[in-house]
């Protein structure tokens, strides 16, 4: 852990919040506080700071009672044992172990679908699907969704997929993606969704790690004007994995006729099966596989600061209770809401807040296949009006990219249905917050800026929209049951107004339980840096009113358009280029993406740097990881700044990348300080 940024400007200068808590009114302008309207608060699930504080207090003092009560609202075939939670979070006391509702027998698919149908929601729309093109759409009621899930579940069982087996899903945002997740959950299979923007190499790496019985994909998809042949990527990935000894027996392929034809799809008889040829033949009801609360639900690979992607493992019971509860409170969910989360199911946001959290609440969810600026920058607001969306959840990068276009793309649409806005993935800068709030939400809709991670399963620090006044750019306060702490370099907790490393004390139901096949790495990465705590990898400050301000990663993970990318992964892709000797990658500020990827490369002796080489280096990264990880800048480096022991000093590279040359700091500890001047001289080559 090297360096971290400090308090964002604006934080800390706000005072008198205690006065607000006590009910005195203070002018919001003076204090940078944005209050929910009286009308909103009075109808909110949590409508005042006091109510929040009481609930939070109970969740901390009596987690078993607090979470046990909520869990009882779901269906359990058998209630959990004596303890709601049992945990060891201190590496000094033995292996890290977290269990919630152990002994409870349930099924998350049953709770998402059957339970809602039985409660009378069978005819309620579960999903509106909006295709890439304007006039292509579909919808499914809860009953219809249940039937489709059952058909697929029956097929999976029939071909031998059993409880505990892994299934890889490589699908774009078609309704078949959540259907596939739910079908796996129904039969106790462990899904691992791979974002359909990952390359064949990345997909293969994940297949090799989790050895799925079956892979689900589609032949092609259109994103904006482009057609992407996903099946060809799967074919290539399966070639790579079989060379590594991992072969997958079945590739169930959905025929997405809006993007391509069957004739144009390469086919391997015996392995490849058309979804439409088999799945609809199966019965529309399917027995549920009842599982233990601690049985695995899914694996989702995410980037770390070193080495290959980690398989984050979530289990059933705690994740179910946690995603449902966070969804309900952070968005102040009402049964009449229509909810749209723009995230792809390939990321954790799409797991917890496209599929599980909303469906557990019986919500109506919009699933969008396309991109937000196709055919033009007004598409999102057009969709909002079309479906009368009331909760709109997105990423700051989307806000910033739309902000650059004319306001009329927003104001041409009514947006009257909107009630709550949400943000996730990276810190939202106050100017983007204000544009989102003032223009998109007509200064009427609170913004839930939700801080959380793949590892946390659900929201950790988030506004409850009717409870607190907001501060643009702050994720505000911890969710129920969450106790964030800020620690210094030595791992000492710091109280009050401060900044440092964000950790969490105690566990919460949605916490991940291990890294698949590597519990040691789980402990080393998350529980050893600051013994006794879960370490998030993020920097954070707390202002004098107790508001939390996330300041970005403090490790070697960068966040590009909300996509988490390990610098080590990009470096290893670059270094595998035959003409690249060494690479060092850092994040730099980027106007739209939040962070951009800046790569320093050292070439093999005698190889000249050229435009062609630059392009082929970038192609290397696109092929090995995916287009979203392509470096924004490649900086030719005859030498890299290293300490005498050979460690690359990234601090210096970050300063050079961001052209903060007056802030290079002490370079005397470098083995060869002259490389710094050389790098500066080559900055614009
Ligand atoms: C960042 C995405 C500030 C953070 C849900 C975290 C955020 C990483 C926010 C996790 C937010 C996510 N404010 N930073 N509201 N939300 N982050 O695993 O750096 O893809 O560690 O999960 O995104 O990314 P992941």
From TrEMBL:
Q: Which SUPFAM superfamilies match?
A: Acetyl-CoA synthetase-like (SSF56801)
Catalytic activity of the protein: acetate + ATP + CoA = acetyl-CoA + AMP + diphosphate
Q: Report domain Acetyl-coenzyme A synthetase N-terminal positions.
A: 52-112
Q: Which PROSITE patterns does the entry link to?
A: AMP_BINDING
The record's PANTHER family line, in alphabetical order, gives:
ACETYL-COENZYME A SYNTHETASE, ACETYL-COENZYME A SYNTHETASE 1
Q: Where is the AMP-dependent synthetase/ligase domain?
A: 120-507
State the family it belongs to: Belongs to the ATP-dependent AMP-binding enzyme family.
Transmembrane segment boundaries:
none
The GO molecular function terms of this record are: acetate-CoA ligase activity; AMP binding; ATP binding
Q: Which UniProt keywords apply?
A: ATP-binding, Ligase, Nucleotide-binding
Name of the protein: Acetyl-coenzyme A synthetase
Q: What CDD domains has UniProt attached to this entry?
A: ACS
- EC number annotated for this UniProt entry: 6.2.1.1
Extract the InterPro entries matched here: Ac_CoA_lig, ACAS_N, AMP-bd_C, AMP-bd_C_sf, AMP-binding_CS, AMP-dep_synth/lig_dom, ANL_N_sf
Protein source organism = Raphanus sativus (Radish)
Outline the extent of the AMP-binding enzyme C-terminal domain. 569-647
Query: Which superkingdom heads the taxonomic lineage of this protein's source?
Result: Eukaryota
Sorted alphabetically, the Gene Ontology BP terms of this entry are: acetyl-CoA biosynthetic process from acetate
């Amino acid at each position: 852990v090297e360096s971290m940024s400090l308090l964002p400007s604006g934080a800390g200068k706000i005072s008198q919040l205690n006065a607000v808590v006590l009910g005195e009114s203070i002018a919001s302008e003076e204090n940078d506080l944005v209050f929910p309207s009286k009308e909103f608060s009075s109808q909110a699930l949590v409508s005042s700071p006091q109510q929040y504080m009481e609930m939070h207090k109970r969740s901390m003092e009596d987690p078993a009672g607090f979470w046990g009560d909520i869990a009882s609202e779901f269906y359990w075939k058998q209630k959990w044992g004596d303890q709601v939670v049992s945990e060891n979070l201190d590496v000094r006391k033995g292996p890290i172990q977290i269990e919630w509702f152990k002994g409870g027998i349930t099924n998350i698919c049953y709770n998402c679908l059957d339970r809602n149908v039985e409660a009378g929601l069978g005819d309620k729309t579960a999903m509106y699907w909006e295709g890439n093109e304007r006039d292509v759409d579909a919808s499914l009621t809860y009953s219809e969704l249940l039937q489709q899930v059952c058909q697929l579940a029956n097929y999976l069982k029939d071909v031998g997929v059993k409880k505990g087996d892994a299934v890889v899903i490589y699908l774009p945002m078609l309704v078949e993606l959540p259907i596939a997740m739910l079908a796996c959950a129904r039969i106790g299979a462990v899904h691992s969704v791979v974002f359909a923007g990952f390359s064949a190499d990345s997909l293969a790496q994940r297949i090799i790690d989790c050895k799925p019985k079956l892979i689900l994909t589609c032949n092609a998809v259109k994103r904006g004007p482009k057609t992407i042949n996903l099946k060809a990527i799967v074919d290539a990935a399966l070639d790579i994995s079989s060379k590594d000894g991992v072969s997958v027996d079945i590739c169930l392929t959905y025929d997405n006729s809006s993007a391509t034809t069957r004739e144009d799809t390469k086919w391997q008889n015996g392995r490849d099966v058309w979804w439409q040829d088999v799945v609809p033949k199966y019965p529309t009801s399917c027995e549920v596989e009842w599982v233990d609360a601690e049985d695995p639900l899914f694996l989702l690979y995410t980037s770390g600061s070193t080495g290959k992607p980690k398989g984050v493992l979530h289990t059933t019971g705690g994740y179910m209770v946690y995603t449902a509860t966070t969804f309900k409170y952070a968005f102040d969910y009402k049964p009449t809401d229509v909810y749209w989360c723009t995230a792809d199911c390939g990321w954790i946001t799409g797991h917890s807040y496209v599929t599980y959290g909303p469906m557990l609440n019986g919500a109506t969810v919009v699933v969008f296949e396309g991109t937000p600026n196709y055919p033009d920058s007004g598409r999102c607001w057009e969709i909002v009006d079309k479906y009368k969306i009331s909760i709109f959840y997105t990423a700051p990068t989307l806000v910033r990219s739309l902000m650059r276009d004319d306001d009329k793309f927003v104001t041409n649409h009514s947006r009257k249905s909107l009630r709550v806005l949400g943000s996730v993935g990276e810190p939202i800068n106050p100017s983007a917050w204000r544009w989102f709030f003032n223009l998109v939400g007509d200064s009427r809709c609170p913004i839930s800026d939700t801080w959380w991670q793949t590892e946390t399963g659900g929201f950790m620090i988030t506004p409850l929209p009717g409870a607190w006044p907001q501060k643009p750019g702050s994720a505000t306060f911890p969710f129920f049951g969450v106790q964030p702490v800020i620690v210094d370099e030595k791992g000492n907790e710091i109280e009050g107004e401060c900044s440092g490393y964000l950790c969490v004390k105690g566990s919460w139901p949605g916490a991940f339980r291990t890294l698949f096949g590597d519990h040691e790495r789980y402990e080393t990465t998350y529980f050893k840096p600051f013994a006794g705590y879960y370490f998030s990898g993020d920097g954070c400050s707390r202002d004098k009113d107790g508001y939390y301000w996330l300041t970005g990663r403090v490790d070697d993970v960068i966040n590009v358009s909300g996509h988490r990318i390990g610098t080590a992964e990009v470096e290893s892709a670059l270094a595998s280029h035959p003409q690249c000797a060494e690479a060092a990658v850092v994040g730099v500020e980027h106007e739209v993406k939040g962070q951009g990827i800046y790569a320093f490369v050292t070439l093999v002796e005698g190889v000249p740097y050229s435009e062609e080489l630059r392009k082929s280096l970038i192609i290397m990264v696109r092929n090995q990881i995916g287009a979203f990880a392509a470096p924004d800048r490649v900086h030719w480096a005859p030498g890299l700044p290293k300490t005498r022991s050979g460690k690359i000093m990234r601090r210096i590279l970050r300063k050079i990348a961001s052209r903060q040359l007056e802030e290079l700091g002490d370079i005397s500890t470098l083995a060869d300080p002259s490389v710094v001047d050389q790098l500066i001289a080559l900055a614009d080559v």
